[in-house]
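Q: Is it fine to ask for two folds in a single conversation?
A: Yes, each is treated on its own. Send the first.
Q: Here.
A: Result:
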Amino acid sequence: MTHYICKGGCGGVSDEAGVCQTESCPNHYELLEECDCADGKHGMKNDAAGEDAPMVVKDSNGTELKDGDSVVLIKDLTLRGSSTTFKRGTKVTGIRLTGNAEEVDCKLGGSAIVLRTEFLKKV
């Protein structure tokens, strides 16, 4: 069942697209995000104590990534807004984890960029 949730921490849920109406929410008047979960947890993982579980970031093979790891690109990637293409097999050293389990920060070709973990393999 598709519904819409607020990612601001207020726990707002709506059956229709719109904006968060909770005045104390940091995302007040920001768009609600579409969620298609069946379990009612909206993609959040909680342990028995009710606290958030630590985020685990994995590469394309399911290997856990940590800050400072080296990875290799498994696909040619074109940098948006430019003609620069990073070739498959390019080694990236010293990645940094972000707040998103599907993305990592790194420096590649003199540019600070964000890479999706689905295109990376840990070395």
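Q: Second one now.
A: Result:
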Amino acid sequence: MVQEISCRELATKLEHDRSIVLLDVREDWEVEICAINGAQHIPLSDLQGRVDELSPEQTLAIICHHGVRSRHAGIFLEECGFKDVFNATGGIDVWALEVEPDMTRYD
């Protein structure tokens, strides 16, 4: 079962643990509007063909717009053998509200 993590908790973890990989599974046009510095971008639609770009030994925190696509990505990655997978609840929309209030938001 994919673990849930709040955006605030994720921000704190990313500050203190550089080994966590933040995976952004939004589409290219969404990332052009706003993105979290340091995030690795693989759209959910490309993830199956690009899963080898990720290491199953790494801790992955996955983010999308609201948390639905990232949950699906987490389930897929767990089925591929990834063991330490977190879904950022509320996605980048909540991240913009709670962590980076200057970040551009979109519908």
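Q: Anything structural to flag on that second result?
A: Two points. The domain at 3-98 is CATH 3.40.250.10 (Oxidized Rhodanese; domain 1). The helical segments are 7-16, 28-33, 44-50, 68-79, 91-98.
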